[in-house]
């Protein structure tokens, strides 16, 4: 599972072939012991949780990079290499 970005202690990952359990395009975010699957289109949590402040950072990052995330999603579900996306600054 490639890490596509990292900021403020948050790892953002996208699994290959990950369209079965959560069929909508999504990312996985990890912060310490917290993990969450987050839908790209809406920014809503599909599973898991993050601290509220970290979740707001991830949602802002998704808003900024939605097009790149959707392009990466298409690559990932096809088993192709994904590209890194700039962190939140």
Give a brief outline of the structure.
The protein is of the alpha+beta class. The protein contains 1 helix and 5 strands. The chain has one domain.
Distance between the ends: 24 Å
Q: Considering DSSP H and I runs of 4 or more, what fraction of the residues is helical?
A: 25-40%
Number of strands: 5
Spatially, the strands of the biggest sheet line up as 1-2-3-4-5
What does the main sheet amount to? Answer: 5 strands, antiparallel
Query: What is the domain total for the residues?
Result: 1
Q: Strand-and-helix sequence, N→C?
A: EEEEEH
Gross morphology: globular
Discrete helix count: 1
Radius of gyration computed on alpha carbons? 12 Å
**Given the helix and strand composition, which structural class is it?**
alpha+beta
Question: Descriptors for this entry?
Answer:
five-stranded antiparallel beta sheet, 1 helix
Describe the structure.
- The chain has one helix at residues 52-77; strands at residues 3-7, 10-13, 26-31, 34-39, 45-48.
- The chain is α+β, with helices and mostly antiparallel strands and 89 residues long.
- Strands 1-2-3-4-5 form a five-stranded antiparallel sheet.
Could you outline the blueprint of secondary structure elements for this entry?
Blueprint: E1 3-7, E2 10-13, E3 26-31, E4 34-39, E5 45-48, H1 52-77
Antiparallel strand pairs: 1-2, 2-3, 3-4, 4-5
């Amino acid at each position: 599972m490639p890490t596509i970005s990292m900021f403020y202690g948050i790892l953002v990952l996208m699994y290959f072939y990950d369209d079965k359990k959560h069929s909508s395009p999504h990312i996985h975010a990890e912060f310490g012991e917290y993990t969450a699957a987050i839908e790209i289109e809406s920014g809503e949590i599909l599973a898991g949780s993050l601290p509220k402040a970290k979740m707001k950072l991830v949602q802002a990052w998704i808003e900024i990079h939605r097009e790149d995330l959707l392009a990466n999603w298409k690559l990932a579900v096809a088993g192709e290499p994904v590209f890194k996306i700039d962190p939140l600054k």
